Structure formats: structure tokens, C-alpha cells
């Protein structure tokens, strides 16, 4: 794994795309963070596809993991790491 701090100044850093959007395209309708627990393979697959497409940075799939909405939000966030 490369250290992003060693990226040359004249090179742009590419982040991943919208994980939630990709999940919707695949037919998922739940909050994306729920899938960290119920279907982690799909999240990993999407992350791998973004890396294959040239992303330098993959962000954690934590959108929707709110403590006021889910008692196990911390578990969802931990699973995303």
C-alpha cells in the first residue's frame, strides 16, 4: 500500500465514487452502512472495483450509521474499517 503523503505534488489524488449509488445500481435499498454487517462482500467488491478503476483512496462505508437511528451504529462503523 502506498503512502498518500508521498504522492508527487503534480499528481492528482483520486478518491472512490459513491458507494451508495453503486449499491442502488445493484438493487440494494437499505442504508449502505447496514450492509457492512449483512453483506460485507458487496462492499468489498465495490471497493475493489474502484481501486481497479484507478482510485487512490477508498472511503469507509459509514453513510447512514447514525446512533439516533441504529443502536448498533458503532458496530456498523467498526465493520467498515
Radius of gyration: 14 Å
Number-wise, the strands total: 0
Helix content: 25-40%
Q: On the 0-100 scale, what is the average pLDDT?
A: 91
Counting structural domains, the number is 1
**How many separate helices?**
4
Q: Spell out the helices and strands N to C.
A: HHHH
The general outline is globular
Query: What's the N-to-C terminus distance?
Result: 16 Å
Largest sheet: none
User: Which structural category fits the helices and strands?
Assistant: mainly alpha
Strand percentage, roughly?
under 5%
State the low-pLDDT regions, or none.
none
Write the layout of secondary structure elements.
Elements: H1 19-25, H2 35-38, H3 40-52, H4 73-80
Overview of this protein structure:
The chain has 81 residues and is mainly α. It contains four helices and no strands. The protein has helices at 19-25, 35-38, 40-52, 73-80. The protein is globular. The mean pLDDT is 91.
Compact description:
The chain is an all-alpha fold and 81 residues long. The chain has four helices and no strands. The relative contact order is 0.21.
Summarize this structure as a short list of keywords or feature phrases.
mainly alpha, 4 helices, globular
Amino acid at each position: 500500500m502506498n503512502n498518500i503523503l508521498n504522492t508527487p505534488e503534480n499528481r492528482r489524488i483520486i478518491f472512490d465514487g459513491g458507494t451508495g449509488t453503486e449499491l442502488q445500481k445493484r438493487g440494494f435499498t437499505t442504508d449502505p452502512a447496514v450492509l457492512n454487517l449483512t453483506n460485507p462482500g458487496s462492499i468489498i467488491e465495490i471497493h475493489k472495483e474502484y481501486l481497479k478503476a484507478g482510485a487512490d483512496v477508498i472511503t469507509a462505508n459509514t453513510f447512514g450509521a447514525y446512533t439516533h437511528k441504529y443502536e448498533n451504529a458503532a458496530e456498523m462503523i467498526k465493520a467498515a474499517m
